[in-house]
Amino acid sequence: MTIGAGNGSLEVRNLTKHFTIGGGLFGPERKIVRAVNDVSFTIPKGTSLGLVGESGCGKSTVARSLLRLIEPDAGSVIFDGTDVRAAKGKALRQLRRRMQIVFQDPYSSLNPRRTIRQALEEPLRVHGLGSGKEISEKAEAAIAEVGLSKEVIDRYPHEFSGGQRQRIGIARALVLDPELIVADEPVSALDVSVQAQILRLLENLRERRGLSFLFVSHDLGVVRHFCDRVCVMYLGRIVEQGVTAEVLDRPLHPYTKLLRDSSPVPDPTARLTLTKILGEVPSPADPPPGCTFHPRCPRAAGRCMTAIPALEHGPGRKAACYYPERWPDLQTAEAAV
Amino acid sequence: MTQAQETALEIRGLRTEFRIGGQWYPAVRDLSLSVAKNETLAIVGESGSGKSVTALSILRLLPQAGARIGAGEIRFDGRNLAQLSEREMSDVRGNSIAMIFQEPMTSLNPTMTVGEQIAEAITIHRKVSRAEAMAEALHLLKEVKIPSAESRLHDYPHQFSGGMRQRVMIAMALACRPKVLLADEPTTALDVTIQAQVLMQLDELKEAYGMSVLFITHNLGVVAQIADRVAVMYAGEIVELAAVDALFAQPTHPYTEALLRAMPRVDRATENLEPIPGGVPAVTAMPPGCAYAPRCPYRQPSCEKDRPELVPLDDTGHLVRCPVRLAKGRG
């Protein structure tokens, strides 16, 4: 089942996922949580796309939907010309070998009663990739590739530090030689010095293996460093997307600007002076009408309260806002994209 | 730091030890610092640097078994907290020194309304009626800008968002008008826009209440936002102490410098993120010399033998624990 050109890219179109909460005999009122609404993006082969936003914006749901760890309700996910949502049986197993995930907390995703060797060899056995000896060599090569010594492979997860466990989590994703890695907050639980080690490791792997990344994070600094392009999500929708540095230096959507301006920078001369950060993210079970950001938006007016702005196409840049920020030099910047 | 300011809290030579396998090992070593009235002192460091243990030592909240303050004084209000009886200490806790923690949900009682919890903090330390305490609780919720405070007073913690819970914690900490507020990673679990709100609010309240704040964090960005002075901790020691502007303009200890280089920034491109090789030494295996020497690119043979002292870099109160850098700085 091949659709379009199989050029190794991931194309996501109009992805939607709704959850139902409540209901039941004694439970609260039944409600629908629109976790992901009409999300579309493309990750060309060998590039990395950042997905940023605050808790509850749907970024992790998007990440998991791509691998069908959560079944999306609507939309399409096309990886290298193959429809992921329609794939069954052998075709789905094949796809899952090529798309792997790295989680935030590697400790809770490693079985405490199995050694690292068992954790790394299992996916190879499941996919039937090679003889026992080949599988063993492959696991050892993966552990060396992430910067751990081969001697540690027969140890248990509790014997490792947080940074080392994240290396193991990455090694487990690598053993199957994937082409796309979905990384869900892979460095958020780590100290700054260790975080830099893991980011460098991921960069090296990306260059050496030509990997594509969907990189989910709440840390704009990390995303700026690692991702070529970025999608900013708010309450289940993408509100802005573009080249990472462009989006962060000249945000069009007021939410992107708020997010950027709230991110602390290590410079006491650039202290936050904004006093207008109002309110909190509303519940996705009960989003406001119109543009969901309007209750917190300093620029909201008129139709923002009633209609949802479309994610408009510009050259290399898109923003879902009726009254985007203006940047005098943006035109030239767009021309350069 | 203006020298004339009165000191609210002073720690001298603090050594906090933990018992591991029958032996006592120091998690905080020879720590001295002072917080002036109306000042925010940030303690920044990575996991295992001893920053939280320092705060817990001040309030003597360490576990009874297996932990002890081995040496040093904690001077507050003319007394040494390290030598107070448990009874005297519980009069200090939540009263003249209050503390807020990282995860407000685990510090709030899920079976009591937030109003009752704040009122409880007031009635424990002050002779007021329940009604008066509830009125004060309402005033505090308004002070920390909880919307429609009148109705939320009777809500339970699970009905609040993370940011609102942390505000409730702050309201509770302010209940007895503390002189010193210990804030242990209070914004780490919050989203950045909420973090920005809480940080600005803490700063306003510090001014309004004339408090001193000891702010513990791992995030140098947060330090730059809120601190007046900064102590950088590594492996249980302060390695650099300076006014916030001086620290970021002239990071002098190799560890401070390395931390800044390892941190990706939102406001500019960081082409070369430089990781710090290796890891923090275990508390049971501290090297005899400088604790940072095994990871330090400027290491000299003497660094591995002699433990360096925290000495002034200049006359502005900028202290650094690195003889190699000091020698270079003085040229």
Task: Give the arrangement of secondary structure elements.
The complex is a heterodimer of chains A (337) and B (331).
Chain A: E1 10-21, E2 31-43, E3 48-52, H1 59-66, E4 74-79, E5 82-83, H2 89-98, E6 99-102, H3 116-126, H4 132-145, H5 162-174, E7 180-184, H6 192-209, E8 212-217, H7 220-226, E9 229-234, E10 237-243, H8 244-249, H9 254-262, E11 312-313, E12 318-319, H10 330-336
Parallel strand pairs in A: 3-8, 3-9, 6-7, 7-8
Antiparallel strand pairs in A: 1-2, 1-4, 4-5, 9-10, 10-12, 11-12
Chain B: E1 7-20, E2 23-36, E3 40-44, H1 51-58, E4 67-76, E5 79-80, H2 86-92, E6 97-100, H3 104-107, H4 114-125, H5 130-143, H6 149-152, H7 162-174, E7 180-184, H8 192-209, E8 212-217, H9 220-226, E9 229-234, E10 237-243, H10 244-249, H11 254-262, E11 311-312, E12 319-320, H12 323-329
Parallel strand pairs in B: 3-8, 3-9, 6-7, 7-8
Antiparallel strand pairs in B: 1-2, 1-4, 4-5, 9-10, 10-12, 11-12
